[in-house]
Amino acid sequence: MTLPPITDPASYLARHTGPDEAEERVMLESLGYGSLDELLDAALPADIRLDELPAREALSETQAQARLRDYAERNTVLRAFYGQGFSDTITPPVIRRNVVENPGWYTAYTPYQPEISQGRLEALLNFQTMVSELTGLPVANASLLDEASATAEAIGLMSRARKKGRGVVLDERLHPQVLAVAAERARAIDLEVTVADLSQELVGEDYCGVVIAYPGTEGDISDPRPVIAAIQERGGLATVVTDLMALMLIESPGELGADIAVGSSQRFGVPLFYGGPHAAFMAVSDALKRQIPGRLVGVSVDAEGAPAYRLALQTREQHIRRERATSNICTAQALLAVTASMYAVYHGPEGLRRIAQRIHDLACDFAASVPQVRHRAFFDTVAVEVADAHAVVEKLAEHGYLVRPISDTLVGVSFGESATEGDVEKLVAAFGGTPAAGASDLAVPRQTPALTHEIFTSIHSETQMLRYLRQLADKDLALDRTMIPLGSCTMKLNPTAGMETITWPEFAGIHPFAPAEQARGWLDLIAELEGWLAELTGYAQVSVQPNAGSQGELAGLLAIRRYHVAKGDGERDICLVPASAHGTNAASATLAHLRVVVVATADDGSIDLADLDAQLAEHGPRVAAIMITYPSTHGVFEDTVRQVCDKVHAVGGQVYIDGANMNALTGLAQPGQFGGDVSHLNLHKTFTIPHGGGGPGVGPVCVAEHLVPFLPSDPTLLDAASPAAVGTGVPISATRHGSAGVLPISWAYIAMMGTAGLARASAGAILSANYVARALEDSFPTLYTGRNGLVAHECILDIRPLTAQSGVTAADVAKRLIDFGFHAPTLAFPVAGTLMVEPTESEDLAELDRFIEAMRTIRAEIDEIIDGRVAYEESVLHHAPYTAWSVSRDEWDHPFTREQAAWPVPALRRTKYFPPVRRLNEAYGDRNLVCSCPPPAAFDVTSEEN
Asked: Are residues 342 and 377 in the same domain?
């Protein structure tokens, strides 16, 4: 396959690809190649290279949006009174425009470098504080993926904390999708699952915990204290699945004695999005704070003692602890958590209470006006007994309302933020009722205050909100300011033409459990996207249900595990994981109840074939799978990939190929054709869904024909009381299509690039990485290379020899890059003491050269230390980065100049980014764990302490 030239400078391909053809020639000449095709022939193993893909012409941005508009118009948007964990809400326009639709927020990366992430870290700390105060528990994380998987995470936490319990009790009043996902995830880690009526006495002793619905799926509220007391008397823990808006009016789980609270923050201003992305939450007691899964924002101090935020405890822990990690979650739902937190900041406690009270009052009026209401204590959902539920549902659909058929004779009506008295009148009429005023019965009314921190009472006007959001965004480095050269994470252009469409009401306003005829546009778009992804990867079928890459990994491994069990090979419980693999691989294998056996890495960074042979000889009949990242995590195209696949297949194992690095393969090679049985993709990497400061992510799972029956199943169709049937898949997320709301972005990218454009983008990524590696080889040599001394789409720069000579660490280089206006490359992964650089195809030659200049300047600063001209402890590197205040105040006691510290190259005089804090004291924040907002006085720059 020969790559075509870029003939139309106005095409999306030309806009997406940073270097133009003249710049490409400069880059190719520096490498000694005459064309992109010559470079690819030299870099890629011939036995994996594609001849060609079915040709698909690229659409223009205008054409792609017209197609998306057609899909959107195939959907039917009804007034959503369905409930079941997804509620009607109103996104304040100032938040929609300035967070969800703002590239300063949506193109930011996970805040692993805290000095340049203080804005999003503050927003996430607001989220944690909001959740902690509403749930009455002292520690909350910075979001999980959805309510169902958050419940599964809570079960895992209870199991780890109470190791003696072999079972878990699930309240039958949980939403069906929560029951399904939680039950199967619990069974996957070998817990016995009991689905019980918790209004009856708890029977049995050997439980790690219980999961309680508060409110229940039919809207009913009951006091959970008897069940909490009963499980705690048995030595178990109590998890409460709850509703943040309801908690404005009903007592907090923590006040009632719960150990853990989980749920979704969706109704705090995040659209329905046909199921996601939505930020789930978890809050825990103080005793569990060091075991909580997911990300935790904590308060620490910087080098000058000023308060500063950072990720605490679990930061990238799965890369460190691997199979011993508390969770496999790598991304969160940061952008949606920010949206929900800002909704709370904007409305404040009084505003939220008014919204909650209004929702409850409307529900009460409705309940008083219709016959045969099943429950008298409720918040927003009224369950009405009828002769024919489906007839009532159809009648209401004709009048523009979507309500829930709970059973053949029970209809659920759930009131949301936009509901009106007029809606009540129409709904009452449909049920044949008579309008009446209702009285409140909440069963456990809230007595404790909520949202007491000043952040929730200090912003009242839109002007204040607008400026607060701008202030936070200005503290951060995102892709709208600078290249983010993160190896393994692919931070490239996110198409605005796709981003614009996700908040269209016809997409954003569809409930995930709407009947198929009302979601026809969504179903058609998803089917086309899944088909494209299958074609690009060479697999038989794809499911977009996994709502993060980690969940795609887990879905793939569960498919493999269930495939073996269905064949009668249940003894296959070993997963081979190369030493160089992503840390989530080992954690995902453990969650799939597979035992991890590590395969060594050879000196050139590839899988050690001799060690692989030894492991297969020892464990062959028990090998379920091997997990391969291709190109390798070391940034090379391994020539032996087909051999590795063949060796594992020969002993009856399956091959999982991690698709995190598809940015080097798309259009050039297909994992499903060079040996893979299953792969997951990261749509938030290769396929341009933005990282959003740490989420949303989407991790589709792609499988060969024999694994199709084991793809994730619909969570609403599973009876959680019994294990899923042998020979079938299990649900991985709360909704059939996961985080569908952001899929138009990837659809638009693929449609606008066309087949040839996708291949050209992969080639561009390979060109950029090799250009940077070659340009820096004298300053920071690349640790691993493949064929002809080339890398794939990323390169690992080895800092270790310089550290030995000078004391300067990879972390010092990362912090110093901030002074040049760059986000650091990936630090210390996959090899400690190194930096992994991925430039992507979206960065033009000038930006690549700016990065190269910065790195060469840093090398010169290191040489000053090596040559003895300056001591490491007194060097500009050791003290980096520098705030505007630190270089402009009168006090300056460093041997280097202010200009060298803040403006090390002349171009920075025109465009200079200053971080808001100095280098973080990493250890202090873990020793002094504070995970909710500190008092405003802590940030008073006029105080003597600061």
From this structure: yes
Q: 3-class DSSP state for residue 18?
A: coil
* 106 plus 188 within the same structural domain: yes
Record the tokens describing residue 230, joined without a space: 């009963």
Asked if omega into 215 is within 30° of 0 (cis), the reply is yes
Cβ pair 878, 872 in contact under 8 A: yes
Are 735 and 177 in contact by the 8 Å Cβ rule? The answer is yes
* Residue entry with tokens 């006029």: 942
Distance of CA 351 to the CA centre of its chain: 29
* Token couple for 100: 């969800």
Angstrom distance (rounded) from CA 771 to CA 316? 29
User: For residue 782, what is the DSSP state?
Assistant: B
C-alpha span between 82 and 188 (Å, rounded): 31
C-beta of residue 712 within 8 angstroms of C-beta of residue 543 = yes
Which are the contacts of 618, defined by CB distance < 8 A and separation ≥ 6? none
Tell me the per-residue pLDDT of 117-172, one tens digit each, with 9 for 90 and over. 999 999 999 999 999 999 999 999 999 999 999 999 999 999 999 987 899 999 99
pLDDT tens per residue, range 29-75: 999 999 999 999 999 999 999 988 888 999 999 999 999 999 999 99
Comparing CA positions, the residue from 511, 497, 110, 504 lying closest to residue 276 is: 511
CB 215 within 8 A of CB 244: no
Contact 759, 671 (CB under 8 A): no
Between the CA of residue 428 and those of 167, 322, 375, what are the distances in Å?
A: 44, 55, 17
pLDDT exceeds 90 at position 330? no
Greater confidence (314 vs 216) lies with 216
Provide the residue range defining the domain that includes 837.
763-927
State the residue for tokens 């075509």: 4
Query: Does 935 map to a domain?
Result: no
Per-residue three-class SS string for 672-722: CCCCCCEEEECCCCCCCCCCCCCCCCCCCEEECHHHHHHCCCCHHHCCCCC
* CATH number reported for the structural domain that contains residue 856 in this entry: 3.90.1150.10
- Tell me the whole-structure pTM to 2 decimals: 0.96
- Asked whether residue 105 is domain-assigned, the answer is yes
Closest by alpha carbon to 879, among 786, 808, 799? 808
